[in-house]
Amino acid sequence: MKIFRRYGLSIGLVLLLLIVWEIGARLYGKPFILPSPINIFARLWELRSVLFINHLPATLAVILIGLLMSLVLGIGLSIWMHESEIVRKAFFPLLIASQTIPVIALAPIFVLWFGYSIWSKVVVTVLITFFPITVNTFDGLRATDPHLKEVLQTMGATKRQIFLKVELPSALPHFYSGLKVAVTLSVIGAAIGEWLGADSGLGYFSRRMMTQFDGAGVFAPIVLLSLLGIALFLLVGLLEKITMKWRNEN
């Protein structure tokens, strides 16, 4: 009941959209172009073995490796820019410029460089997810209350102690905000990479079904990608609650 009270309106809206979609698809009468939700879920059930055993693990590997690399690079660069004004002036404009290039235009280049291996998809994922993690963590570090830092400095705290006791807790909410954006974008990045060059994965399977004019087969892996993004988002939210109990208690 608690979940229904909290998400009742969202669930109702989704059900309404599915009903409208179902009616519209049946009236249109061309399932190879616009399959109905019932046809999509039926096709998803038919393809469950292929999708869950062969393609879902490949996409999940791309997402997890890409997110891990983005976390290491993003957190490291954000701390480095926070500690050094020279580094910030050198890298921050490049960081912004990296987001002005359409990723879909770079993906074929990565395929040329890395082939159909997992790394061409990982690079696309990193390029998409690196930015929100870096910028949000950097903003969180800069949002630290200067008065708290001054108090600790007058008490003889070291720079490391100030970072761990003040700056890091201040940056955590911003970091998790960026990570929530990044995990949803990671699904898009993996799908784009697989769509343009792969021999396995949900994005690859969706493209293969398109060549066969299987509308429901195109949508079936997309449904899985959406559910995967939602699951990752909820997982980050759970991790945020566990690591920031002090915030939830206030």
TrEMBL record:
Its main location: membrane. It is found in: Cell membrane. Keywords: Cell membrane, Membrane, Transmembrane, Transmembrane helix, Transport. The keyword Transport applies. The chain crosses the membrane at residues 53-80, 92-116, 122-141, 178-198, 218-239. Residues 56-236 form the ABC transmembrane type-1 domain. It is a multi-pass membrane protein. The keyword Transmembrane helix applies. Belongs to the binding-protein-dependent transport system permease family. PANTHER family: ABC TRANSPORTER PERMEASE PROTEIN HI_0355-RELATED, ALKANE SULFONATE ABC TRANSPORTER-RELATED, MEMBRANE SUBUNIT. This is ABC transporter permease.
